[in-house]
Amino acid sequence: MDKEKFAALMPVITADLIQTIIAKDNLPPTTALQRLYHSKLYAALDNEATKVWQYSTEKLFALFSAEQNSGELILPEY
Questions:
Q1: pLDDT at 78
Q2: What is the rounded distance in angstroms from the CA atom of residue 23 to the CA atom of residue 64?
Q3: Is residue 48 part of a domain?
Q4: Is 73 a member of any domain?
Q5: How many structural domains are present in the chain?
Q6: Which of 16-43 are b and which e, b meaning 16 or more Cβ less than 10 Å from the residue's Cβ?
Q7: Does the residue 26 lie in any domain?
Q8: Other CB atoms closer than 10 Å to residue 63's CB: what's the count?
Q9: Which residue in 11, 64, 69, 77 is deepest, having the highest Cβ count within 10 Å?
Q10: For residue 8, what are the domain limits?
Q11: Gap between the Cα atoms of 69 and 46, Å rounded
């Protein structure tokens, strides 16, 4: 995917994920944003080459939750 398309897609993915984190973890928006932006998942998500951006919001939330619990990001192998 070219950089422009990826740059346009990231805010949509991030917004959906933030809303899910807020709802499922019952966090204030600022806390949810801080946790996501400081996560290994976000670093992987922000790197187009990892293809993490292709995962569903539910899958991204599961990965985020697992990372928050263990401190490690383990991506599924496909």
A1: 63
A2: 14
A3: yes
A4: no
A5: 1
A6: ebbebbbeeeebeeeebbebbeebebbe
A7: yes
A8: 22
A9: 64
A10: 3-66
A11: 21
Predicted TM-score of the model (pTM): 0.91
Amino acid at site 59? K
Distance (Å, whole) CA 70 – CA 54: 23
Cα–Cα distance measured from residue 27 to residue 31, given in angstroms and rounded to the nearest whole number: 6
Average pLDDT value over all residues in the chain: 95
Spatial neighbors of 24 by CB under 8 A, at least 6 apart, are 61, 65
Secondary structure of the chain in HEC code, one letter for each residue: CCHHHHHHHHHHHHHHHHHHHHHHHCCCHHHHHHHHHCCHHHHHHCCHHHCHHHCCHHHHHHHHHHHHHHCCCCCCCC
**72 within some domain:** no
How many angstroms separate the CA atoms of 27 and 7, rounded?
A: 26
Using one digit for the tens of pLDDT, what is the confidence trace for 32-43?
A: 999 999 999 999
